[in-house]
Known about the structure:
The protein is mostly beta strands. It contains 9 helices and 88 strands. Strand 68 (about 810-815) and strand 69 form a beta hairpin.
Amino acid sequence: xxxxxxxxxxxxxxxxCLAAVALLTASAGVxxxxxxxxSAATTTLHVAANGTGTACSSSQPCSLAQAKTTVRAxxxxxxxxxxxxxxxxxxxxxxxxxxxxADSGTGGHTxxxxxxxxxxxxxxxxxxxxxxxxxxSGKNIWQAKVGTGFDTRQLYVNGALATRAxxxxxxxxxxxxxxxxxxxxxxxxxxxxxxxxxxxxxxxxGSFTDRYSPVAGISNGTITMNQPAWNDNTFGYDTLTKxxxxxxxxxxxxxxxxxxAGEWYLDNGTGTLYYKPASGQNMSTVDVEVxxxxxxxxxxxxxxxxxxxxxxxxxxxxxTSWLSPSSNGYASQQTGAYLSGTWDRPxxxxxxxxxxxxLFQATRPHWSQMPAAVQVSAADHITFTxxxxxQLGQDGLGIGNDANAHATGVGLGADTITATGxxxxxxxxxxxxxxxxxxxxxxxxxxxxxxxNITLSNNLIHDVALDYRDMTAVLATYVSGATVTHNEVYNLxxxxxxxxxxxxANDAGGSQDYVNRGLYNYQPVYTTATTAKNNHITDNLIHHxxxxxxxxxxxxxxxxxxxxxxxxxxxxxxxxxxxxxxxEGSRNFTDKNxxxxxxxxxSHENASSTNNTGALTLTDNWVPSNWSNITNGNRGDxxxxxxxxTNGDWPSGARTVMDNAGIQPAYRPLTTDPVTAPYSAYSSxxxxxxxxxxxxxITDAGADNWGAGGxxxxxxxxxxxxxxxxxxxxxxxxxxxxxxxxxxxKAGVVLRNSLTGSGSSPGYAVVAATPSHGVTFQWDSxxxxxxxxxxxxxxxxxxxxxxxxxRNATQVSAYYSTDGVTFTQVGSTVTLxxxxxxxxxxxxxxxHSTATVGSATFSxxxxxxxxxxxxxxxxxxxxxHQGVTSLSSAGIxxxxxDDDYAAAYRPGAAGSTSTVTVRVDSQDNPNGWSKAGLMxxxxxxxxxxxxxxxxxxxTPSHGVxxxxxxxxxxxLDTSTxxxxxxxxxxxxxxxxxxxxxxxxxxxxWISAGTATPSGANTTQDAGxxxxxxxxxxxxxxxxxxxxx
Length: 1044
């Protein structure tokens, strides 16, 4: 049949050959394993968290440290790659791992440190806090002994950054002095009695700075601050004492401030950690991680002998805390630049130097950079792929930063560095910072210092800059040839992607603005250009940024960067801030084919008479308004082809950009989180599974799942819902991508009595996309637990494609669709012997290769049973199981020009006098405005167009909302707000009017208002829906849905 296997080397013979080769290398304690082709071999070492000895073999794995030693014994003259397979587990480091030229690949070969297939190893500088006891029952404060001799500024609880104990202060309750503050409100007198005032800090959030200043002491209504941190924080721009935006002000880090659930305090003198648990946390099972290291990975040599050809793949980097702010303060200037040390300043600086002064300019050439947890400098051909940078107390990845930001003492000099498919989340600082700030960064004294050829692609960066809000997802300062492409960035306090630095002051010829400010009394006017050029920001998805700070945008630039482009990026929902912000000195950028939605000004340039901003080209961008101060012909700017879209009806070109922006399907398996309820994951072969809202990924190296012709293979990975399929159930999914690990690799949907019964469980059917053989329908005709019958479409049917299996008693039918609407049957309906009344259902993948790892990505998984149908206007998962409907997705919102939701519904079930009721059992909180509840609409599958539209939804933070379309444009535009889940919701139709009700007990109902949605048909669809109102996916569970 068409699935013939061509196996020239049996597995037994292969094992024998490998064993013979292993004998030849036994003295080195390594195994040489066959790579993907017959001409290449890889030396493989194996490490484990509890590894010992020097063998570094699969049966006797060694430690990370021993593996480094072994690599150094093997890499003098490499003829093949060296791979260090890191087994699953937590590797608690007591010192950073350093990689120099001695740890590098040679001869053009690479040393790769990677997770074993199916493993998620964690390299951490944290210790786990255990032995919790109740310290104060009245306040529910718990304590644990964690040891002395260290400090930390961060604490992570169940993977999320906890809040250091703090007390909010009104700025009017303090008066600033040259030495600190005095109280102007007696309500602060309790601060005089703090047990450890010298442990506290003042934390002030401004417009674009986020500052920390340590306290020396508090007594008699006076806060005396540590110097020089106080002086550094109180002159310049957007200062602690006079911010351009009066954001929150706190005093932090005292036991006495422990008054809010989720807060913590460390008494480092006694080694006692105090924590006030959040709701639902059980201190006997909670995972509390206490960072101890200040950095985790240090990659770098010298300019003469750089670190080279080293790769890291599939690892998690966690557990650091950068401690400099505790003693030196953090005098933030912008995006991780900070001032430290003692500087001359005016005696009246608190009045004369709160928006800059000449003495402040003397500091500018000497600003320092925040060091990253993972540092790369004086290095080339370094690669990070599919790693997770999480629970870090600073920036995640620093590439070619200044020397002060590198523990090696050698900065800059990063060439051909690649970061692809990594996740950055729950970090105190930003995501990725490329380049330095000081003179050698922009005008290197040694050409080998130049940062160049940097590629950042398909990374997911969200919920970072949690403690240092002045940071961004990506910052590239002075870099030549950086490509930042297909990344997704969201949930950030400040800007999304920043390119350039220096405000034009270091560009050729200088800036008249900085002549006037007096900068050039302290540094030269450079006559040559900086190293910033040919940088490309393309195809990125940037949303829900600028959530806390000011003076930024989705994309932000500074200074000249010839040959640089910002193209095909999609930017939306940045709290009415700027789309592309060309700040001081920005020149020679081309902005083309970008799409902007739900923002303020789509483009802006900081153009004063004394700076050099200009020579910008903006062409063929799609915008929601004409709000921009960049005009054609002004300051050498070229503006043309702008398309104004005011009704949400985006042209095909814009939709292509929006669809293509962000992480590409082939890389999504690298950026997902573990699978969460109601879904489960299983693999009969080593595999990785992941989930991101309504998307699922499976990666494996399974031989196949096929049992005919003498084969007995059932090796696969699956994400499924247990016992969800009954008579009538359909399971549908979109196969977004399937790797070509083999022409018969398979990715699709599956029904089986038990998906954990590999090689035994009957009732087994799969319909799957393949790389070369179309969509194939395969089933077990003999109930022996192996697929043995097959029928396929033409080979031209390839992913992306929707596939579906539908049960009818013991019969199964398979279908495919190229648009998700019209489905074509594959072959004929078949009968499965021994098919159980209830079955598992989900998505499945097999690489059809044990030598080549393959991945598949799925979206829009729908497991529904009549009379219900499923629909989603965005990638989502819809699941029904034992009376509970689960809806998982991200989504911007259902409001005005946004109509992103997932729904389970009954078509045409609601007449003009119907009552629809549901219980919202639970909902996640990706955003305070996430919505879960009931929907009435003429056509629920008509997102953005169908009228008669009304929803009643509960939100995490804003009660129950009745929202409807008042003008027949197919979008919700009017609301009335009146409980959090669990809550019952009800919509009652009476002719053209609809009344919403909610109940906390299902018996007593409270009106949420009455509305008349425009254009309602006599008969409408009725269903349950969810939208996350965020880029962060969420899940809602609903039950007891009725229509009467």
